[in-house]
Amino acid sequence: MKRLLSLRAVLVTGKGGVGKTTVAASIAKYAAAQGKRVLCAEMVGGGENARAEVTSALAQALGRKDLDDQPVDIAPNLRAVALSPALGHQKFLRDVLPMRLLADAAMRSGAIRRFLSAAPTFPEMGVLYRMLELVRQTRRDGSFEHDLLVVDLPATGHALALAQIPASLLRVIPTGPIATAVREGLALLQDPTCTGSVVVTLPETLPISEAIELCTGIEQHKIPLATVFVNRVPYDPFSDEEREAVRTMLDGKPPTLGERTMERIDRSRVALARISAAVRAPIVALQDVFLEGSKLTDEVALLMDSAGPA
Ligand SMILES: Nc1ncnc2c1ncn2[C@@H]1O[C@H](COP(=O)(O)OP(=O)(O)OP(=O)(O)O)[C@@H](O)[C@H]1O
Ligand SMILES: [Mg+2]
Question: For residue 51, is pLDDT > 60?
């Protein structure tokens, strides 16, 4: 876990429903507790209401009702923001169009906004621009406004989508201010001392296979893989001997609830062993916790703190 603290940006990815938002919010709380100034960001769609507040899963995981496209204070050292493509597009237009006034007028035009949201890779580019802006933001004394940006990505493939835009865009626009910004974005994304992606998965057969595939994809795109979190690992109270004893006791008996739990524990052990063997990055197991919302992420942040050096 300590290694994550040295990064400037952590991108949390994984399949739907595995716990990306929970893990992102928990990493943010963990890092804030370690004294880092943290900004936790959720990617949201573009569309018409660029500045409208959004009800978000991340807000709930942090104990708030909603987020805004400007950072809001959550707790000491901890802020959260909705990462919409719109602000990135605005900055992008300001970089390409000759005058700020013109860029702002262009952003007010529904047609241009719709175009920017619809063109493939443009939403991602808006997000990348905005991410860069947030990562670079400095305070008056010259230090970074936020030491660490934790991004809750919406679904598998988005970390990859972010990595793909720079290359495809550079082919179309090889020079100029956009190309420069895009190159910087790419350099940031691919620098293991700056950026780390985090893959979240569940301790079951299929999710583990998918996570291994995702890790391979991430490495192929040269995005550094920092940590794999195997989330919702069932509580396992047994030593190997105790487990055998319980197995013998249950053998030949009619099916019981405990047997199901034992099977889940067994599958989880196999799953952890499988992903540990397949992936080079550190694997951190996070327990299934019977809490929700902000209490859940408080608890998971504590689990991360005790997870050791991974
Ligand atoms: N370690 C955990 N213990 C108990 N419940 C958990 C844990 N991690 C996540 N959950 C629960 O699982 C559900 C899904 O988690 P979460 O919203 O973080 O997943 P997600 O990957 O962000 O989903 P989506 O793909 O929809 O964005 C939530 O109800 C959350 O409270
Ligand atoms: Mg989520």
Answer: no
pLDDT tens track for 246-255 = 888 888 888 7
Residue 41: name the closest of 94, 91, 87 by CA. 87
Q: What does the pLDDT look like over 181-215, one tens digit per residue? A: 778 888 888 899 999 999 999 999 999 999 999 99
Domain boundaries, the chain: 2-234+280-305
Whether 295 lines ligand 1, by a CB cut-off of 6 Å, is no
Encode pLDDT of 110-139 as tens digits: 777 776 666 656 677 778 888 888 999 999
Judged by its nearest atom, the ligand closest to the C-alpha of residue 296 is 1
State if residue 57 touches ligand 1 by the CB under 6 angstroms criterion.
yes
Q: Whose CA is nearest to atom 10 of ligand 1?
A: 19
**Cα 154 to ligand 2 centre (Å):** 6
CB 123 near ligand 1, within 6 Å: no
Q: How far is the CA of 265 from the centre of ligand 1 (A)?
A: 19
Smallest CA separation from ligand 1 atom 16, residue? 19
**CATH superfamily of this structure's domain 2-234+280-305:** P-loop containing nucleotide triphosphate hydrolases (3.40.50.300)
The set of residues, in sequence order, having a beta carbon less than 8 Å from that of 48 and lying 6+ positions away, is: 110, 113, 114
- b or e along 239-261 (b: 16 or more beta carbons within 10 Å of the residue's beta carbon)? eeeebeeeeeeeeeeeeeeeeee
